[in-house]
Design a protein that fits this description.
mainly alpha
């Protein structure tokens, strides 16, 4: 491209044409494009902040402490699935209510979900507070025994903040169901920036302490979500604001019918995707969780970027399916598959430069073996393909086959990870997840084509 061509592109009429193209088309597509653009800007800043947070945290605590923190965080995150699928059940039902203009029904869905999850998490919090003193976290995390008391306090603090975030983050579900995920992504950015500032202050004022670290990283997102909930529910989302007046437990079954399937899928996902830190810590020690997690965070940038693009389409697919706009779904899915091809190429480029990036990012002290990077890149490519079709299937509520496939993979993953881990090292733990994810990469596009062509029967249509 020469200078003249560049000037033509930058000419006001050309810019005007680009803006016009971006703003024209199907209303659903325009809304999705706008959300994708703003989400990329917001999530890009959020990813950058989270990447800076890693070396900053490693500067505050050592690699072993950081590995312990990552493992404990993974365990606490499991409790996020105690919503029994109500979050995703709310997302689909709320999107349908909004598509039909049923604002009162939408508010009933929101209020009832807040009430049910509030009761659930209160019970879970009380049980955890009773059980926690009996747990030996040093053994669970394969940490030095003298850290048992510190880890018990850390677990309690992190769990309390988690419970608060568990309820408050329903706001992001409401925004996403209304096809405004870009607004929801702001919360994560603000929380990460707040965490960055807090950890930076800790590096200057206190010695490395896991309790301080957990408090800082737990408090930040809770404060952001609390302020955001008060802001949105008292302004533009007032018509959906949770209220005791609109709590109708008779709607719980409707929310839970689909939500329970999502819940089982989520539990299966824990066994498939969230157990690696623990398995690695037990087989190879907590210090080896750090290089694995560095590689995961690096390559997960690709999945984060894809999720930014895919996020608006879940509720958009729900709306299109309800309104029987099959042509829009077909065109959109073709575009998303082309996007996956680009993402795959980008992942390969990231793999080529991975060793260089690691050294610049976290320094030469943390060594990430090439084998881990290769298998992690494969993991990203496979899951990127599956994510396209699961977004459609989740949106239209046809998830029974996904449920059975997830359960099958969940049952196999832990023993397969341990077996391959003992045979070939840390690489084997990641390879197990890749192998089981590949199963979904086969059946999910088949189910999509059957549904979109009105040929789905039996389990393919459930």
């Amino acid at each position: 491209m020469n200078f003249i061509d560049s000037v033509r592109i930058l000419h006001p009429s050309s810019i005007s044409l680009l803006i016009k193209t971006f703003l024209n088309g199907h209303e659903r597509s325009v809304k999705a494009r706008q959300n994708i653009l703003f989400s990329f800007i917001i999530k890009g800043l959020s990813i950058a902040a989270s990447l800076v947070l890693v070396p900053l945290t490693l500067h505050y605590v050592n690699a072993t402490q950081y590995g312990i923190w990552l493992t404990l965080s993974s365990i606490i995150a499991w409790f996020g699935f105690f919503d029994i699928g109500f979050g995703n059940g709310l997302r689909n039902n709320l999107a349908e209510a909004i598509a039909h203009g049923q604002n009162e029904l939408a508010r009933i869905y929101v209020s009832t979900t807040y009430a049910i999850l509030g009761i659930i998490i209160l019970v879970v919090l009380v049980l955890f507070a009773c059980i926690n003193p009996l747990l030996n976290w040093a053994v669970i995390l394969n940490a030095p025994r003298e850290m048992a008391g510190e880890l018990s306090l850390l677990a309690l603090i992190v769990f309390v903040f988690f419970c608060m975030q568990f309820i408050l983050q329903l706001l992001t579900t409401v925004l996403t169901a209304n096809q405004e995920p870009a607004k929801a992504s702001i919360f994560n950015l603000l929380g990460t920036l707040f965490s960055l500032i807090t950890i930076y202050i800790l590096t200057k004022t206190a010695k490395g302490n896991l309790v301080y670290l957990g408090t800082a990283l737990g408090f930040a997102p809770v404060l952001v979500l609390l302020i955001s909930s008060l802001w949105f529910y008292n302004r533009e989302y007032k018509k959906f604001a949770p209220s005791f007046k609109f709590v109708k437990f008779v709607y719980a079954r409707q929310l839970m019918t689909l939500g329970l399937k999502f819940f089982i899928i989520q539990i299966a996902s824990i066994a498939i995707y969230q157990t690696s830190n623990i398995i690695i810590a037990q087989l190879f020690g907590p210090e080896n969780v750090t290089p694995y997690n560095i590689a995961y965070k690096y390559f997960s940038i690709v999945l984060m970027a894809q999720s930014i693009i895919l996020l608006p389409f879940w509720s958009a697919f729900t709306e299109a399916w309800v309104k029987k706009d099959i042509q829009w779904i077909k065109v959109t899915m073709k575009s998303l598959v082309l996007l996956w091809v680009v993402i795959t190429a980008g992942t390969v480029i990231m793999l080529i430069f991975s060793n260089f990036i690691y050294k610049v990012w976290v320094g030469k002290e943390i060594i990430v073996p090439l084998g881990i990077s290769i298998i992690m890149a494969l993991y990203v490519i496979i899951n990127g393909w599956c994510a396209i079709f699961s977004q459609f299937l989740n949106g239209v509520g046809k998830i029974k086959l996904q449920l059975y496939s997830g359960l099958f993979a969940a049952i196999l993953n832990i023993p397969l990870s341990i077996f391959l881990g003992k045979k070939i090292g840390i690489h084997g733990v990641i390879l197990s997840t890749c192998i089981l994810s590949a199963i979904s990469s086969v059946w999910s596009p088949i189910q999509y084509f059957k549904l979109i062509n009105n040929k789905a029967q039996g389990i393919w249509n459930k």
